[in-house]
Amino acid sequence: MIVIMEKDYLKKDLNLVIDRIHREGLRAEPIIGVERTVVAVVGDITEIPEMKSNLEETPGVAEVQRISTPYKLSSRQVQKEDTIVDVSGVKFGAKNIVVIAGPCAVESEKQTVETAIAVKKSGAKVLRGGAFKPRASPYSFQGLEKEGLKILSKARKETGLPVATEVISPEDVELVSEYSDILQIGARNAQNFPLLKKCGKAKRPIILKRGLGETIEEWLLSAEYILEGGNKNVILCERGIRTFEVATRFTLDIDAIPLTKNLSHLPVIGDPSHGTGKRILVKPVAKACIAAGADGLIIEVHPNPEQAKSDSPQQLNFSEFEILMREVRKIARADGRKL
Ligand code: PEP
Ligand code: MN
Q1: Which one of 3, 89, 197, 334 counts the least CB within 10 Å of its CB?
Q2: Ligand 2 mean position to 275 CA, how many Å?
Q3: Centre of ligand 2 from the C-alpha of residue 198, in Å
Q4: Does pTM top 0.85 for this prediction?
Q5: Among the listed residues 110, 107, 108, the one whose alpha carbon sits nearest the alpha carbon of residue 141
Q6: Bridge partners, residue 123, by sequence
Q7: What is the pLDDT of residues 70-103, one digit of tens each?
């Protein structure tokens, strides 16, 4: 349920609305936008049938609407304006397109710093690199963990690029937050509810990948856990879902980009590296993501992809990445946006 305030509401009217919500044991989330101020009622209202009329009678209230979707705080019905997530001055969800690039996994200082310098030169604004790797097999490379985080910090120092890295367990949220500017929740953890809740309390923005088998509604409910915890800085990432098609690693759901942007105010980026799993498909699908309205991309880049310890078939080398950026820039420009 949302309470839409009159244009000229008084501060005390807003406080009264919030009080009335609190009195029912529910949470009130005021969203003060440029166009309008609304208060989202967060919690289960099914047992309080008189709630709607009580709020409608409160001074300063223009209208009370029920929200038809199970997710509330991530819904466009609650907040009409786009959320802009600011990561050390890099803005996701504003008009410009932001590209995050870097290796799948941090393997060494040399590999990470070299990649950071190269991707920055081509126009990436954030460095990625996994220190904790969620691998399908326990025998695969699991990441350098804390040492990997330290390497990412060095790469940030060398290039000035903010860093995004994955956190795979709730116990590591604080540690990863000390080293990283953005926390990534991977596809395999998209419904790890303790992790989502912990990230709701984190001080860092979150990239929330879509789960391999998540519907868009479930993905937005995963985002809801983070927003509900108080962290409003969530970037959604479409990274492909599992379908019957085995010719590609996953199926990047292009429809999900404009649809999710329509359903939610959160920024949405595309991940054509994991979405396709194939080097030759990364550039065309990156262009498709931007043409479909994505706010950015996350691309895997490695100095020598053939030697990569993880996701070797989908990582680009430096010159392939440079070409991708050039072509993506053209699509952005055609759409009246910049990269
Ligand atoms: C990654 O970004 O390297 C990764 C593991 O992604 P995903 O969770 O989308 O598979
Ligand atoms: Mn990867």
Answers
A1: 89
A2: 10
A3: 23
A4: yes
A5: 107
A6: none
A7: 999 999 999 999 999 999 999 999 989 999 999 9
